[in-house]
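TOKENISED FOLD:
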Amino acid sequence: MLVVARVFYLFDLFFAVFAPIVMLMYSYYNFHVDRDNFVIREETLTPGSFDRIARLFADPIQVQLVKTSFANLQITEGEYILVKCFLNLLGIYKWKKVIAYLILANRSRREDKGVAKARAHPHSRKHTMVGGFIFICCSMGIAIYTALSISTSIENCAPYQHCPVYSYRWDWGHKSTCRCIVFMDLDLAPRTYNDWINAPDVTEDLRALSSNGYLQIVQIINRAVPELPEELRLCTKLKELILVYTKTRRFPEWMKEFTRLEYFHVENDLIHSSLQYLPPDTFSNMHNLRFLRTGELPNLDDLSGLTTLYIADAIHAYSLPSLVGLTNLKNFALFRRNEICCNGWATGYCDLTNFQKNITQNVQASEPTLQSTDGMCQGVLYRECNMNGIRGICYNGRMQVVHCDVFGEYEKMRRLQIARGITIWVTSILSSSPSHIFTSWSAMLRVLGQRLLSRASPSHAPRFFHASAAALHGDMSKFANNPTVHIKFKLRDDSIKEVEAKTGMSILDVAHANDIDLEGACESSMACSTCHVILEDPVFDELEEACEDEEDMLDMAFGLTDTSRLGCQVFVTEDFEGTTVMLPKATRNFYVDGHVPKPH
């Protein structure tokens, strides 16, 4: 009896305490986020950009599993209290029976065993059989209910591809429906302009899965939900609401009924479907809200649970609202300049004639167009593009359609990824199967990216990366008919080497053609400073100003001077005749294994 009691007690203890811990340990060792990539995002992208929010790129299924495991270790809801109390009472009852048995066994050794058995046997046998029968019936009932719940829930939720997580329930005497917990429909990188502008409407799917009132997480990106369905109001346990480019223009008055909401993120296309109305009392009862991102500065009086507050691009905000009610606030930041900054300006002087409100920007011109998407990029990530004479990179910034971005941030991010040897798998979450992440047709980017990052070898002639033109560093025949100029290189040992160069060649090309030790580890992509050179004043003054990317790389260069430039960005002209190009005493080596590239 003692062995059986201990086995059942350990069984209860495992599911009450250790099972959630096992799930957390499983999550810790099996769920991974690309932390190195997000470190680069933090370094290169503008603060306040939601491209820096890792939660949006994490797998919602994994997030829900971790949160559920944590919730099972805490007493957060009435159901958890009842279950834990029942398990504790059951354990107490079992140990009470064990102790009573030990007392009875000890007493039986002192008394006449025959008399004790005669008196105790009928009574004990009757209660034992009744208790055993009840226990067996309950066990069988639980097993049958569990089997029916699993089978019917799988069958009912199979038609709903946007419900990766659901509750296993079986309704006695009623038609069972899908009790969805997580609704997820994402397209993180639309390939064509039409896919982005005319995104499929998923309102009816959301309506159907909201009708049971079990939804806790709703995450919709690049799908249309013009108006939240009335059935969503039944989901009183909703904890996360993420709507990005869903064409939702107005939020209903009953939004304030989501009192358990912890995460609220709304982002719309500013030109085509901007948010027009958010009830002023939306957050009045959301005391559990931890994350908030909207296009409007809300009333902060009732957000006592808010831990982080970032105010970005709020040029319409003339004064900072009261933060007295934010008793749990741990992080606060104000991005971009506005009139709020004049209150306690760091320099002691605030120039109202030079701040963000005075800057005129064509917002529509900065948004994706048919030409900047289908015309230039054709759905290919990281392709080099050119818009209005400005070089850019094809990227799905802010989860928009893949388009030509000429502002430089994403190009800087990509170059830093290459410089640090971070291989990016191009993935998309397909609406037809939201619970799985598939590698896209452009998996070749990984192979070609590794080829770019691998050690240079003279025997491996042209290197191709994505869809851009190949840099054929070993082929100088295209400059053969150009005029010749004479250039002197002052090497690291202070010796002078005079060489001939053709106009149109870069200083890096000239160095490689004449066996001069100038690295150029990033293959002229402005992702490193290893081709740093120092020019004479007359030549430097005749050059065009360095772009932002080149200046960023020069900031990391050793021995930086006022006339420093990247050799891959300085092209020889006839004015270079007789000039001296000086190599710095040291340079950074971006190759992990210490390899120094040879001229080729």
